[in-house]
Amino acid sequence: MTIAQLWAMAPPGYLSSPQRPAFHLLVLVTSGSTTHTVDFEEHHLAMGSMLWVRPGRVQVFGEQATGDLVLFQPDFLIPGTHAAGLAGDHGGPVEATGPFEPTRRALRREYTRAAGSGRPTVVQTETLRHLLSLLILELARHAPDPRRPDPTGLDARFRDLLERDFATAHDVEHYAQRLGYSARTLNRATQAATGESPKQAINRRLVLEARRLLAHTDQPVARLARRLGFRDPSNFSTFFIVHTGQSPTAFRATARPAGGS
């Protein structure tokens, strides 16, 4: 859809409130500019910019610009391709400015043609999948890659396991044992790949999820604490204050505008 179509269908104030969609979102700005906030960090997008937000991220739309939005489910990309692998990455949003316009136009033309046919044919669907993959690969080509080399793949496996277990396992030994390495070896791998220790990665992931839940849900703090593996809500509050400088209640008040949903 176009960005204008989204603004036309959204209730007043909805887009300025935290959202957490379960699908991928590509924002392509063709005119004007906007600020799109993803996981509490602002991304300033101007003409020619594209931003890729993966599922589960908390985001807030800024001012309206002109351009397209591409929404797709995680399983739409062709399995086994590099584009599908990028879609499964647990990293943050990907942003770049580049020559995306020809592929954007081709994808829009094909989508309009397929939507107009009522039920897309196999050929139309495959064409959409390939054009979308091409757009993602073009984005990856022009976006800076903050990752360092991970020759053994241990850091990547740790990140996958962390994404699965962070709410139930807060100790480094759990991840080291599951991966079949010592805690010292795991620490060397994560430090080399990202510059942070496994414990720092665990804490950062917990804080991020806590912030997402506080901003996007109305669940009581005690319930969120249990959901994140803290038996005592006071321990969770202390943990959150140490890592953010705010209490959970204070953060929720600043993250959710008055009247937001």
In short:
The chain has 261 residues and is an alpha+beta fold.
Which architecture of the largest domain per CATH? Sandwich
Nearest-integer average pLDDT: 94
CATH topology descriptor of the largest domain: Jelly Rolls
Quantity of strands, as a count: 7
Tell me the fraction of residues in β-strands, as a range.
Answer: 5-15%
Structural key phrases:
HTH-like; Jelly Rolls; DNA-binding; AraC family transcriptional regulator; alpha+beta; 11 helices; HTH_AraC; 261 residues; 49% helix; 7 strands; 14% strand; four-stranded antiparallel β-sheet; globular; Arc Repressor Mutant, subunit A; three-stranded antiparallel β-sheet
Description:
It is a single chain. With 261 residues, this protein is an alpha+beta fold. It has two domains: 3-142, Sandwich (Jelly Rolls), CATH 2.60.120; 154-255, Arc Repressor Mutant, subunit A, CATH 1.10.10. The chain is 49% helix and 14% strand. It is built from eleven helices and seven strands. The strands form two sheets. It has a four-stranded antiparallel beta sheet with strand order 6-1-4-7, with helices on both faces. Strand 2 and strand 3 form a beta hairpin. Helix 5 (154-165) packs across helix 6 (172-179). The chain is globular and about 55 Å long. The relative contact order is 0.11. The mean pLDDT is 94.
Which SSEs are present, and which pair or pack?
Elements: H1 3-9, E1 24-31, E2 34-38, E3 41-45, E4 49-53, E5 59-60, E6 66-72, H2 82-87, E7 94-97, H3 101-116, H4 122-142, H5 154-165, H6 172-179, H7 183-194, H8 198-216, H9 221-227, H10 233-244, H11 248-255
Antiparallel strand pairs: 1-4, 1-6, 2-3, 2-5, 4-7
Helix pairs in contact: 3-4, 5-6, 8-11, 9-10
Protein name: AraC family transcriptional regulator
Keywords: DNA-binding, Transcription, Transcription regulation
Domain HTH araC/xylS-type: 156-254
